[in-house]
Amino acid sequence: MKGKIRSRLSACCMTVLASGILGLTTSDVCHAGQYKLAPGDTVEIAIGGLSDQRNRAQIQIDGTIPLPGGGTAEVAGLTPAEMQSRIETLLQGKVLRQRLTDGRDQAFVVKPGDVMASVAEYRPIYVSGDVLTPGQQVYRASMTVRQAVAVAGGFSLLRSRGTQPGATDPADLLRDYQSLATEYTKEYFHIVRTSAELDGRDTFDASPPNDISLPAGVIASVVKAEQASLKTSQSDYVTERRFLEDAVKQTDDQFATLKKQQEGEERGVQADEEELERVMKAFGSGLLASPRVSESRRALLLSSTRRLQTSVELMRLQRQREDFLRQAERVSSQRTINLLREQKESSVRLADLRVRMQALSQKLQPLGGSGAIPVGTSDLHPDVIVVRRSGQRWDRIVASVDFDVEPGDVIEVTLRPVAANLSN
Q1: Strands across the sheet with 42-47, in order?
Q2: Of 365, 362, 391, nearest in space to 379 by CA
Q3: At 231, is the secondary structure helix, strand, or coil?
Q4: Residue 323 region, left (φ>0) first, then alpha (ψ -120 to 50), else beta?
Q5: How many CB atoms within 10 Å of residue 355?
Q6: If 184 and its partner were Cys, which of 124, 278, 288, 353 is the partner (CB 3.0–4.6 Å)?
Q7: pLDDT (tens digit, 9 = 90+) per residue, 289-298?
């Protein structure tokens, strides 16, 4: 194999020497031996011995180029070697004039071997379809589809769709997607945090959702904010619960004290009743005067009043205790209701954000925010059509990414899912 390649290179080099085209590389010459010139190519003609006779001209639509000293030559359809031979023939024996450094004109007769004609610039190629920057490109010798796509920025659905009429700018799409992803992350961690509150936990899992890709700093700030909210909320809840529990405990202590006081007052009332009964009997027997009866009655009234006041206070403390207990239950219930409502609202927003992100992701896939897809690293396969002019017709050639392109080719690229491509 190496011997064959070496033989081909040697043959190419011999062609170079025989033709006198010293300005082309080996790969250029090998390509030039097959390529035929066409309108749009730029040709350079140099005359040996005449430093100022180096002319560049683009092949016109009629296939001709102007010659040094006047006249034209038809070169379209010729190979570079044939162009060299034709121009050399046309210029041989022609008298050209050269201005010397001292201002004098000197006649110069063109001889065989003085003429050097080469292709200075090839016609451009054009890349369209699913590439990042479609459009015209400078052709380089031995250029492949893969190289042309690389110069066009790589395979991409973003730019090709973004340049369609009425489409949003790709940068705006990417910015909107990142904004939605940030909001999605906030709602996700809000649900995680509220779940931790409902379970009575002081921490939660800070792992981001698997289907979201955001800078670590953004995720860390969201997690930090939710952790601070969890800490504050848990602290407020514990403080309020402790306050109500302490209030219930104090009420119980007061209730116990008053209960003992009530028991003493019951005994006092009972004693006053017995005393009044004894005094009344003695008064009826005429053993005591009426003032003594009045005093006993006042004592009984006073003890009964104190007992009644204590009973009322006990009832008040009982109602207060029940109120504190209801408040504690209400705090817990209301907290649970609020957290469940927040979870529900966040879940609804999360679902809405997911739908909107999926809609945007169809425009961004498979970029992942990068803007371009290297060949062979995605789930898409490039279908390549090379449109090439042959005489008066245009041929559509199904090609691979390693297909050799020629000047003037139009490369049409379409990215399709691998499964769909295989099924076709």
Answers
A1: 54-58, 42-47, 115-121
A2: 365
A3: helix
A4: alpha
A5: 11
A6: 353
A7: 677 778 888 8
Contact at 8 Å (CB) between 108 and 96? yes
- Between the alpha carbon of residue 167 and those of residues 159, 170, 181, 262, the distances in Å are 10, 9, 21, 85
Q: How confident is the model at residue 310 (pLDDT cuts 50, 70, 90)?
A: confident
> What is the share, in percent, of the chain residues with pLDDT greater than 90?
32
Report CA Rg, the chain.
50
What is the model's pLDDT at position 27? 35
Helical (H) or strand (E) element with 47: strand 42-47
Instruction: Output the six-digit token pair for 312.
Output: 């009322």
Half-sphere exposure of 167 (CA within 13 A, CB side): 16
Q: For residues 184 and 353, what is the distance between their CA atoms, to the nearest angstrom?
A: 6
Residue 19 reports pLDDT greater than 80: no
The pTM of the whole model exceeds 0.70: no
Q: How many CA atoms lie within 13 A of 138 on its CB side?
A: 4
d(C-alpha 167, C-alpha 172), whole Å: 10
DSSP 8-state code for residue 144: B
